[in-house]
Write a structure and sequence with these properties.
heterodimer, A: 490 residues, alpha+beta, 3 domains, three-stranded antiparallel sheet, 16 helices, 41% helix, B: 95 residues, mainly alpha, two-stranded antiparallel ribbon, 3 helices, 35% helix
C-alpha cells in the first residue's frame, strides 16, 4: 500500500502550426534574429487592431475535436492584465469565461501491463504567446534582454483535470497528447523550440484511519523542459509535500497556492512565490476582437481534417492485421506515414508481424542514420516485402538477413539478387544437418546429459555449434526440429 | 459606492502605479464616484434579458494565415528607452 496518492493536473501550451501570428502577419518561424518578426500590432502600439488568424482558429477547433471537447456555439476573447517586460500590451489576449471548447478527455493508451486510463480535460482555449526574456546570469544583477518575436504567436492551452495519479502517467499523457497533435497536423510539439510547454499542478492525498483523506496545498511546478523533467519533478514534489506535511501539518486551503521551479541539475523543486489570485488579472472582454459564432460548416470542416487519430489507428492495426497491443502501438508512434508504409508491405505479401519487426527495426534505423523520412526511403514496400518473404522461405537467420538488407540498400537490388550475390544458400539438407548435429553432440556430451536432465536451454549450445559450422546458414526451424529428433534418439 | 484606501492601493499596485498617501486620499473618492456612476447599472431590472458578452454585433472576422510586413529591428526598437544590441533592455527581472 502506498502511503499517499499523487494528484496531478497538467497545463500544456502548444504552438499551432501557422506561418503567421495570431493577430498579425508577422512570421512565427523559430530562431529569427531578435525583434525582426514584430509589427505595431504585436508590439502593442496604440491604435492598432488585432484580426484573428483563420488557420489558427481552425487548428484549435481541430484539436478540441481530437480531444473530445464540447464546442461552444459562441466564443469571445478577453484581456488578461498583468505587467511583465515580455508582454508589450500589458495584457494578454486569452479566453476567460467563454472558451471555445471545454469538458473533453484524452485516453492514455493501454500497454502490455496496464489498461487504458481516461484523463478529463477542463478546457482548451486559444491565446497569444508573450515575448522572451533573457536574464543576465552573471549574478551581478545586470539587465534583462527582451525579444518580442514570439509575442502574439498562437497557442492552444489544454488544461487537464487533476486526474493523473503518477509521474509515469503524466509522462504517458504528454506522449499521447504530443502524438495526437503532431499526427493531426495541429502542432509540431518541439519542446526544445518551446512549441510544447507544460506546467504541473501537484498535490497529494494522505489517507486517514477513518477512510477519508487529507489534501496538501497545490503547488504549480514550472520550468519543465522535457518529459523526463515532468516525470522526475512530480515524483520529487509529491515526496517533498509528504515531508512538508509531516513537519507543519498544513492542508489545502490553509496556505495559498504557490509556484515552484524545477531545478533539473539538482533534481529538486524550489518553492517560489504566492500565486496571484485569478481575479487579480482583472479579465474583461477584448473589445477590439470580434467574437466567433461556430457554424455547422466550420465544425464539419474541422472533423473532416482530423484524419485517423492514434487510438483509432491502434485499434485498426490490431483488428485488421492481427498485431498485438505492443506492435500496434510501436507503429502508431512512428507516425501515419510509416504506418501506411507498413500496410503496403503487408499488402505486397509480407506477414504482418514480420513486416512490423522489419519496419520498426531496420527501416527505422536506416531512416535515423540517414536523417531522412519514409518518403525518401529507397526500398519500395514491394521490395521490402520481397525480403521478408525470402527470409522466411530460405530460413536465413537474422544476422544474415540484415546483411541481405544492407546489400539491397547498397546496391539497389531486390532480396533474391542480394542473396545470390552474397552466396547465402541456406543449409536445408536434412541428412547433412543431422550429421553435423551428431558431431556436435559427440563433442559436447555434457549438453546432451543436461538436456536429458530437463535443461531445455542446453540444446542451444548444440544449435550454436551447427550454426557456426554452417556460418549461420542452417535453416533455423529445420535445425530445431532435427536437433530435437536426434536428442530424443539418445 | 464606497471604496477603501486599501482597495485603491491594491489596484494601484496591480497597475504598477506608485501613489503617495496624499494621492491615495485624493483618488479614493474620485474612483468611488466613477465606480458609483457605473454602479447605477446594477439597479436596472435585467430579468429576461439575454446576457451581452460583447459590444460588437459583428462575428467571425478572420484574416488568412499569410505573412505581412514586419518592422525592421531598428524601427521596432526606435522607442525603446534602452537597448542592448537588437534586444529591448529592461531592469533585471528576478523570476
Amino acid at each position: 500500500m502506498s502511503e499517499y496518492r499523487t494528484v496531478v493536473g497538467l497545463e500544456v501550451h502548444v504552438q499551432l502550426l501557422t506561418i503567421s501570428k495570431l493577430f498579425c502577419g508577422c512570421s512565427v518561424t523559430f530562431g529569427q534574429p531578435p525583434n525582426s518578426a514584430v509589427c505595431p500590432v504585436c508590439l502593442g502600439m496604440p491604435g492598432v487592431l488585432p484580426v484573428m488568424n483563420q488557420k489558427a482558429f481552425e487548428l484549435a477547433l481541430r484539436a478540441a475535436l481530437a480531444l473530445n471537447c464540447q464546442i461552444a456555439p459562441y466564443t469571445k476573447w478577453d484581456r488578461k492584465n498583468y505587467y511583465y517586460p515580455d508582454l508589450p500590451k500589458n495584457f494578454q489576449i486569452s479566453q476567460y469565461d467563454l472558451p471555445f471548447s471545454f469538458e473533453g478527455y484524452l485516453d492514455i493508451p493501454a500497454s502490455l501491463d496496464q489498461p487504458s486510463k481516461r484523463v478529463g480535460l477542463f478546457r482548451a482555449h486559444l491565446e497569444e504567446d508573450a515575448g522572451k526574456s533573457m536574464h543576465d546570469e552573471s549574478g551581478q544583477g545586470g539587465s534583462t534582454k527582451v525579444d518580442l518575436n514570439r509575442a502574439g504567436t498562437p497557442l492552444l492551452e489544454i488544461v487537464s483535470k487533476p486526474e493523473i495519479h503518477s509521474a509515469e502517467d503524466a509522462r504517458a499523457y504528454l506522449e499521447e497528447l504530443r502524438l495526437l497533435l503532431k499526427e493531426a497536423g495541429i502542432s509540431d510539439c518541439e519542446m526544445q523550440e518551446g512549441s510544447l510547454r507544460c506546467d504541473a499542478n501537484v498535490n497529494i492525498h494522505i489517507p486517514q484511519a477513518d477512510g477519508s483523506f487529507i489534501a496538501t496545498p497545490i503547488v504549480e511546478v514550472k520550468n519543465l523542459n522535457s518529459f523526463r523533467a515532468v516525470e522526475r519533478s512530480i515524483r520529487y514534489e509529491a515526496m517533498r509535500q509528504m515531508e512538508q506535511y509531516q513537519k507543519d501539518g498544513k492542508k489545502m486551503g490553509e496556505v495559498s497556492k504557490c509556484t515552484a521551479g524545477w531545478d533539473d541539475a539538482r533534481g529538486v523543486t524550489i518553492v517560489q512565490r504566492r500565486k496571484e489570485e485569478a481575479s487579480d488579472y482583472r479579465y474583461f472582454p477584448e473589445p477590439d476582437l470580434a467574437p466567433i459564432r461556430i457554424t455547422a460548416e466550420m465544425l464539419e470542416r474541422a472533423k473532416a481534417s482530423l484524419g485517423e487519430l492514434p487510438h483509432q489507428a491502434r485499434a485498426r492495426l490490431q483488428a485488421d492485421f492481427g498485431l498485438g497491443i505492443y506492435d500496434a502501438d510501436l507503429l502508431v508512434r512512428m507516425g501515419r506515414a510509416i504506418t501506411a508504409y507498413f500496410e503496403k508491405v503487408v499488402s505486397a505479401g509480407a506477414d504482418a508481424k514480420s513486416a512490423c519487426n522489419w519496419v520498426a527495426n531496420q527501416v527505422l534505423t536506416t531512416l535515423n542514420e540517414s536523417k531522412s523520412t519514409i518518403d525518401q526511403y529507397p526500398l519500395t514496400p514491394g521490395i521490402l516485402a520481397g525480403l521478408v518473404v525470402e527470409v522466411q522461405k530460405s530460413g536465413l537467420n537474422m544476422q544474415r538477413a540484415r546483411e541481405v538488407y544492407g546489400a539491397m540498400l547498397a546496391d539497389g537490388v531486390d532480396a533474391k539478387t542480394a542473396i545470390q550475390k552474397l552466396g547465402f544458400v541456406a543449409v536445408a539438407d536434412e541428412a547433412a544437418l543431422a550429421e553435423m548435429i551428431r558431431k556436435a553432440m559427440a563433442a559436447n556430451p555434457k549438453a546432451v546429459s543436461d538436456f536429458k536432465a530437463g535443461k531445455i536451454k542446453a540444446a542451444d549450445s548444440l544449435k550454436g555449434a551447427v550454426m557456426k559450422e554452417t556460418k549461420g546458414m542452417a535453416k533455423a526451424d529445420l535445425l530445431q526440429k532435427i536437433l530435437l529428433d536426434e536428442l530424443n534418439k539418445v | 459606492m464606497s471604496l477603501t484606501a486599501d482597495q485603491v492601493r491594491w489596484v494601484a499596485h496591480l497597475s504598477r502605479l506608485k501613489l503617495s498617501e496624499a494621492e491615495v486620499a485624493q483618488m479614493t473618492p474620485q474612483l468611488a464616484s466613477i465606480v458609483g456612476y457605473v454602479d447605477q447599472l446594477q439597479k436596472i431590472n435585467t430579468e429576461g434579458v439575454k446576457p451581452l458578452y460583447h459590444a460588437l454585433e459583428q462575428v467571425n472576422v478572420f484574416r488568412p494565415d499569410a505573412l505581412g510586413t514586419s518592422l525592421s529591428p531598428e524601427e521596432a526598437l526606435a522607442n525603446a528607452p534602452e537597448r542592448l544590441g537588437n534586444f529591448f533592455q529592461v531592469p533585471a527581472v528576478l523570476d
